[in-house]
């Protein structure tokens, strides 16, 4: 009889650019105030990349090296790369193969990108979990990396979105375990495409003749658009739903969670979810105040920091949850 395999996170790591952009800095770019930004998002500062220094792939590589070091592994031990990003270095190829190059990995190591925006890291984690469970691979590197700042409308016109986003990268290494009830207990993935245009970068779309010329003529559509009220309304419903789904599948209650690490979308959303789930302050991790929303990178950055700070320990029940563009939402329940 074959032994059942489970996935465990063997190492975590993150990297954020050196450039700190405060709300006071943002005030110099557009009509806004520190008080307005903090009241609506909870954000005090974020990191923005430096051209010629940071790329989506090399930030991911820096986070990956730290995760591999924490796991006691080297890049040559990695058998698969799953790279979550909405801001790849090129339109194609994807940043996964560029990460492979950055790490100097074996020539034939497979890599693919996942385009699920804010839910991208959990979707990627779920896919990596399946590869481990089936026995196809023993060591999978999962990376979330984003450069938003180069694609934001930094004028007053774009302030509702542009004050929110930051740049950075996080990574985890998955390895197999035969210990039942340990590692990734379950993952849960959902989408609702009828709301696709509520949070979107529309251009340059491939369904246009002369798409580059069209995009230039419709320049506002090259910047992120968000129907903030509608996103908030759905997020505060889907977050608790998908967390409860994970707990129910594993016969657990909210009080069993030792640490909830939500996608860092908006501190107000996180606080609502915390209240809805009845979690104390020491059972939820937020770092959006310092980094803003880094979409696919936000959960692995937060997880890495939580581990570094001793807030996630061996034996803890950790829940990851995300909601974002698509709409997509997802959760993962992990016995650390």
From TrEMBL:
Residues 264-268 are annotated as: ACP-binding. The active site is at 118, 263, 293. Keywords: Acyltransferase, Cytoplasm, Fatty acid biosynthesis, Fatty acid metabolism, Lipid biosynthesis, Lipid metabolism, Multifunctional enzyme, Transferase. Its EC number is 2.3.1.180. Residues 247-336 form the Beta-ketoacyl-[acyl-carrier-protein] synthase III C-terminal domain. It catalyses: malonyl-[ACP] + acetyl-CoA + H(+) = 3-oxobutanoyl-[ACP] + CO2 + CoA. It is found in: Cytoplasm. Residues 112-193 form the Beta-ketoacyl-[acyl-carrier-protein] synthase III N-terminal domain. Pathway: Lipid metabolism; fatty acid biosynthesis. InterPro entries: ACP_syn_III_C, ACP_syn_III_N, FabH, Thiolase-like. Homodimer. The last Arg residue of the ACP-binding site is essential for the weak association between ACP/AcpP and FabH. Belongs to the thiolase-like superfamily. FabH family. Catalyzes the condensation reaction of fatty acid synthesis by the addition to an acyl acceptor of two carbons from malonyl-ACP. Catalyzes the first condensation reaction which initiates fatty acid synthesis and may therefore play a role in governing the total rate of fatty acid production. Possesses both acetoacetyl-ACP synthase and acetyl transacylase activities. Its substrate specificity determines the biosynthesis of branched-chain and/or straight-chain of fatty acids. This is Beta-ketoacyl-[acyl-carrier-protein] synthase III. It comes from Hymenobacter defluvii.
């Amino acid at each position: 009889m074959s032994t059942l395999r489970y996935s465990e996170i063997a190492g975590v790591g993150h990297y954020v650019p050196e450039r700190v952009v405060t709300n006071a800095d943002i005030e110099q770019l557009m009509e806004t105030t520190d008080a307005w930004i903090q009241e609506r998002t909870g954000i005090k500062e974020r990191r923005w990349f430096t051209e010629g220094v940071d790329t989506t792939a090399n930030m991911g590589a820096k986070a990956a090296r730290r995760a591999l070091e924490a796991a006691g592994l080297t890049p040559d031990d990695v058998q698969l790369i799953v790279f979550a990003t909405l801001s790849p270095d090129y339109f194609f190829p994807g940043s996964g193969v560029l990460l492979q190059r950055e790490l100097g990995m074996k020539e034939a190591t497979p890599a693919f990108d996942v385009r699920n925006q804010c839910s991208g890291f959990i979707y990627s984690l779920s896919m990596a979990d399946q590869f481990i469970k089936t026995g196809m691979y023993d060591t999978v590197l999962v990376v979330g990396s984003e450069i938003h700042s180069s694609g934001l409308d930094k004028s007053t016109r774009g302030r509702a979105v542009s004050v929110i986003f930051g740049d950075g990268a996080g990574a985890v290494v998955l390895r197999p375990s035969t210990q039942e009830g340990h590692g990734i207990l379950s993952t849960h993935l959902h989408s609702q495409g009828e709301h696709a245009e509520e949070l979107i970068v529309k251009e340059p779309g491939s369904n246009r003749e002369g798409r580059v010329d069209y995009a230039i003529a419709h320049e506002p559509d090259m910047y992120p658009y968000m129907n903030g009220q509608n996103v908030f309304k759905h997020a505060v419903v889907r977050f608790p739903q998908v967390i409860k789904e994970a707990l129910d599948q594993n016969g657990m209650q909210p009080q069993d969670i030792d640490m909830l690490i939500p996608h860092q979308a908006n501190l107000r959303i996180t606080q609502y979810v915390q209240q809805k789930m009845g979690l104390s302050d020491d059972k939820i991790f937020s770092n959006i105040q310092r980094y803003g929303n880094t979409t696919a990178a936000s959960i692995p950055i937060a997880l890495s920091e939580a581990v570094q700070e001793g807030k996630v320990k061996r034996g803890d029940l950790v829940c990851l949850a995300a909601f974002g563009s698509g709409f997509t939402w997802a959760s993962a329940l992990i016995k650390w």
